[in-house]
Specification:
Layout: E1 2-5, H1 7-14, H2 21-33, E2 37-40, H3 42-52, H4 64-76, E3 80-82, H5 87-99, H6 107-118, E4 123-125, H7 130-133, E5 139-141
Parallel strand pairs: 1-2, 1-4, 2-3, 4-5
Helix pairs in contact: 1-2, 1-3, 3-4, 5-6
Length: about 140
């Protein structure tokens, strides 16, 4: 089964001193051992690079080169399905923003969810369950 990756999972899996690294890595290893794959959208990689290079968020931020290398590793992994926004996902994105009266701080999460929905991905690995539950139809896989 395909599991969509939220940025918080990617950050926790890649940053060894992250408070949830051990849990994220254990989940990653278990899902891989069980034969699951992962869905990844380009905007998650952009958000990942932004976060892990930010000295205000990371005690030991990565260099841009390190962050890009790690993002590239994920993008090229054979277990990763690349997902892109399409017409349906943009329509769902706009409709969900309106229907659920969501604000600007939810834009990336809602576009992520819409892209996954359009690609048939209904499981999201995240610790931010509340960001997606209002939309319905997604199974959340927590890693803490």
């Amino acid at each position: 089964m395909t599991h969509g990756i939220d940025t918080d999972f990617l950050v926790a899996a890649e940053i060894r001193d992250h408070p949830f690294h051990r849990e994220a890595d254990a989940l990653l290893q278990r899902l891989l051992a069980e034969g699951h794959d992962f869905a990844l959208v380009p905007q998650t990689l952009a958000e990942f690079i932004h976060i892990v290079t930010d000295g205000k968020r990371m005690p030991q931020p990565l260099t841009m080169a390190e962050a890009i290398s790690r993002a590239e590793h994920w993008w090229q992994a054979k277990e990763v399905v690349r997902v892109f926004p399409d017409g349906r996902s943009v329509s769902d994105f706009l409709a969900w923003l309106t229907r659920h009266q969501l604000g600007r701080k939810r834009l990336l999460d809602i576009m992520l969810a819409a892209s996954f929905r359009s690609a048939g991905v209904n499981r999201i690995v995240t610790n931010n369950e509340r960001d997606f539950m209002v939309l319905g139809g997604f199974e959340i896989v927590n890693f803490r």
